[in-house]
Amino acid sequence: MARKQNIAQLRCMGCGYIEPTPTADLRCTKCRELLEAVYPTWQKRGSQQPNPVALKNLWQQRRTSLDALDQSGVWRFRELLPILADIKNAVTLAEGNTPLYKLQQSARQSGVEQLYVKHLGMNPTGSFKDTGMTTVISKARELGVKWVACASTGNTSSSMAAYAARAGMRCLVLVPQDKISVGKLSQTLEYGAVVCQLPTDFDECLKILSEVVQQAPVYLVNSANPYRLEGQKTAAVEMLEQLGWKVPDHVIVPGGNLGNSSAIGKALLELHELGFISTLPKVSIIQAEGSRALVRTMQETKGESLVSVKAETLATAIRIGSPVSWRKAVNVLRSTGGACEYVSEQEIAAAKAQLGAEGIGCEPASAVTLAGLYNLCKQGFVKPSETVVMMLTGHVLKDADYVIRFHSGQLLPEASEAMKSFCNPPIQADANPKSVIEVLERFTNEPARALA
Ligand code: F0G
Question: CB count, 10 Å around CB of 105?
Fold first, then answer.
């Protein structure tokens, strides 16, 4: 019993009610707002409160441990996410531990010298979702759940299917038909999910699922589930560790359903509160132009009520018009002073190819961060002397079709000059050495792609 008191409580982010028995849709039973994990013992000064010096050392030591939990880049930080009564319930695929790369060409191009990407696409199923899926599936195991379910634009479903398979659970997926990439669909099928393709969009899939979970014994693992966000917090913790706990000035995150930006903001605010860091970075959220619900919410209602949009973008991962965690994201923007911007399809495509030309592949939704950085620099919101970390959320192979269409000049009816400069179509050559050497000579006299 004493152990149980140390684990997370779920508190309504609207009215503050502590929800003792969450309902299937994981919303507050008093006011219907989202719940968030809170840790009452952290409020009390004393031995129960995380100790920054001791924990920074302990987390470092765990990097050399042979224990499976220590080898996870999520559970290595388990003191910051005590959600399990028994840690033996943890289901891990050695998630997290993702690289932080310093950019050079993009740093020159943007004028921001200290420019980094934290590549969350290097997770086991190729997206940041794994860091939250390990925690929510572990919690589901502890709760004795048999079926888990999500609506998805493809990455959540791939991740859920893998972790459910590891935990021996069944899983149900709702996806918008023909609107998720083939790579993501194939991953989800491979890991054994029951996949329903619905002739609608993501927002409607999620709405339908919230009704299904109230009528059938399935456990919702979309990011409305607060246990997901607890795992996703670790991207920020790991980033700080990789920077030697030197706090960057800006963190830039793509925005879709807004779980990730909420989780990263929550982590930074908690670390600040607990004394792990003494300043806060500005957390900025970037959306695709055709799916800019949060941007409009901030502009038109100052963050007071959600402006939903009919979502459209080739960055299918963030083709979301009614983001569930919008209120949490507004809180993050307000408490860190971050900006909220949108970028065009051309800007996304060019930014993605620019990262690729630097050896950093990512999926389109991730590239909104670099495209957004250019705009934030132009506005003077980001200054050349500042340190910036952009969160790349998915692996380049998640949407190979987009990449091929880009390089063959077929992605958009009109390509910008920036897009054209990165375009790298495959070349048809005859099947003999002479023909290949001719190609080589032709390209030897041309500058390498892009930013010469
Ligand atoms: N980047 C990628 C690659 C994503 O897959 C998603 C969301 C986001 C960014 C946006 O993150 O929703 O936390 O704001 N993908 C979800 C899915 C919706 O179903 O895979 P968010």
Answer: 16
**What pLDDT is recorded for position 5?**
59
Q: Is 226 in the pocket of ligand 1 (CB under 6 A)?
A: no
121, amino acid identity: G
Whether 225 lines ligand 1, by a CB cut-off of 6 Å, is no
**Largest pairwise CA distance in the chain:** 77
Check pocket membership of 256 for ligand 1, CB cut-off 6 A.
Answer: yes
- State the DSSP string of 328-397: HHHHHHHHHT--EEEE-HHHHHHHHHHHHHTT----HHHHHHHHHHHHHHHTTSS-TTSEEEEEE-B-GG
Establish how many alpha carbons lie within 13 A of residue 365's alpha carbon, considering only the half-sphere containing its beta carbon: 32
Q: Is the pTM of this model over 0.90?
A: yes
**Alpha-helix runs per DSSP H in 168-285:** 182-190, 202-215, 226-232, 234-242, 259-273
Cβ of 103 below 6 Å from ligand 1: no
**Does any ligand 1 atom lie closer than 6 A to the CB of residue 353?**
no
Ligand 1 centroid–CA 19 distance in Å is: 27
Q: What spacing in Å lies between the alpha carbon of 155 and ligand 1's midpoint? A: 7
Per-position DSSP letters for 8-48, written without gaps between them: -EEEETTT--B-SS--TT-B-TTT-PBEEEE-GGGGS-STT
CA–centroid distance, 362 to ligand 1, in Å, is 13
Q: Quote the Cα angle for 44-14-90, to 5°.
A: 60
Q: Compute φ and ψ for 220, nearest 5 degrees.
A: -75, 125
Instruction: Write the pLDDT tens digit of every residue in 172-229.
Output: 999 999 999 999 999 999 999 999 999 999 999 999 999 999 999 999 999 999 999 9
State in Å: Cα 315 to ligand 1 middle.
10
The secondary structure of residue 224, as a DSSP letter, is T
Q: Give the Å distance between the CA of 63 and the centre of ligand 1.
A: 28
Tell me the per-residue pLDDT of 111-130, one tens digit each, with 9 for 90 and over. Answer: 999 999 999 999 999 999 99
Helix, strand, coil share of the chain (percent; to 5): 45, 15, 40
